[in-house]
Amino acid sequence: MKQLVLTVFAAVTTVLTAFGGYKVGDVADDFSLKGTDDKIHSLSELKDAKGYVVIFTCNHCPYAKLYEDRIIALQEEFEPMGYPIIAINPNDPSIVEEDSFENMKKRAKEKGFNFLYLFDEKQSVYPKYGATKTPHVFLLNKERVVKYIGAIDDNARDASAVQERYLANAIRALDAGKEIKPSVTKAIGCSIKAK
Amino acid sequence: MITSRSLSVFLCKYKIGNDTYFLNSGKKLKTYSSNFNMSGFLNMILLGLFLLFGKESFSQLVVYDNFDDFEKEWLLERDAEMTYVINFWATWCVPCVKELPYFESLNEQYAKDNVKVVLVSLDFKENLNSRLLPFIEEKGLKSEVILLADDHTNDWIDKVDTSWSGAIPITLFLKGEKRLFVEKQYHSLKELEEDFLSIHQ
Fold first, then answer.
1. Angle at the Cα of B24 from the Cα atoms of B20 and B29, rounded to 5 degrees
2. Would the CB atoms of A186 and B157 count as touching at under 8 Å?
3. Which 3 state secondary structure label does DSSP give A19?
4. Using CB atoms, which residue from A17, A61, A155 is nearest to B151?
5. Which pLDDT tens digit goes with each residue over A134-170?
6. Has residue A181 been placed in a domain?
7. Which of A61, A110, B99, B141 is deepest in the core (most CB within 10 A)?
8. Which residues form the domain of B47?
9. Domain with A70 in it
10. ipTM of the shown complex
11. Are B46 and B117 in a shared domain?
C-alpha cells in the first residue's frame, strides 16, 4: 500500500512538474517587479516593444555568469529593433546570499547591465512562467504570447564555439513573421532556489 | 608521499587535451596517450611508483566528451541485474553538493547488493584539475565519479529524460526495465532511499 501511495505521489509530482508553467502559444501574465534602479517595472510600460525577452537569471550561477556578456550584447542588438531584455532574478537570497537585491544592484553596476534587472522577491512570477533554472528564456510577442522557451544559444561554456544562436534566431524569425524553429530548447542551468 | 589521488591529479595535469582517462582500480590504465615527451615520461615513472605502492581501491574518473558514449555505457548497455543510481551534479551546484552525502551513504550501505551509484559531474572540463579532482579528494568521495563534458546540451538532455528541464541536481534510478527520474534535491537519506527502494526491489 505504501508503495502504491508513493508511486501515485511520484506520478502526481511528475505531472505537476510537466504541466506547470507556460508552453509556446500560451499568453504570459505581465508583472510588477522592483528593478536594480529601485523603480517598479512591468512589461506594459515598454510601449514601443514589439516583443519581450524575459530571461530568468541571477548573480551566483556559473551558467548565468557565462551569459552576462552575451545578454548585454543581445540587448544592444535587439532592443533597438523593439525586443528589449527583461532579466528577472527568481532566487531566494536567504538560500544564496549572492542573489540578494543589494548584490543584484552591485552586479548590474559592475557589469554595466544595459537591460532591466528585476527581483522576483515574492517568488510569484517564475512559477507562473514555469522557469526552473537560470538562465531560462521566454520570448513573448507584443500580445505576450509565448513564442520561444529555452536557452540563449547552444554553447554555454564557450561563446566562441556557438553554432546556433537560438534566441537571436527566434527574435529574428518573430520579427519577420516566420516560424520559430526550434521553439523549445534545453540547457543545463542552476535550479531556482526556493524554500 | 604520493597518494593515489594526488597522482591522478598529476597524471591529469599533463594529459588534458587528449581524452584523459585514468587508472582503473589501481591495476591498469584505461587509455593513455602514447606520445613520448618529458612530462609523459615522468608520468610513467610515477605510474610505476603508483603500481608498486598504490592502493587497491583507487577510483577512476572517466571523461565523456560525447553523450552517446556515456549513454551507451551507462544507460543502454547496463547490467540487467544491477540497480543504477545516476546522479547529475556539479561542484558549483550548491543543492547538488548538499545532497551528495546521502548518495555516498547509499553507496556504502548497498555496495554489496548489486547497486551502483554513479555521480555524473557536469563541471566544465577545464575545471577538472582545479575544481573537480580536488573536490573529490577533499570530500573523500567513494562513489564512482565521471565527467560528462558534452557542450551540446540541447542534443542530449531529452535523451536522459524528456521531462528534464536542464536544472540540476537530478537523479535517475534504473534497474532492468524499471526507471525513475527525479528532478529535485534530496533533503535526507530516507527520502533518497524511498525512491531508490521503489526501483531496487
1. 60
2. yes
3. helix
4. A155
5. 999 999 999 999 999 999 999 999 999 999 999 999 9
6. yes
7. A61
8. 4-53
9. 22-191
10. 0.84
11. no
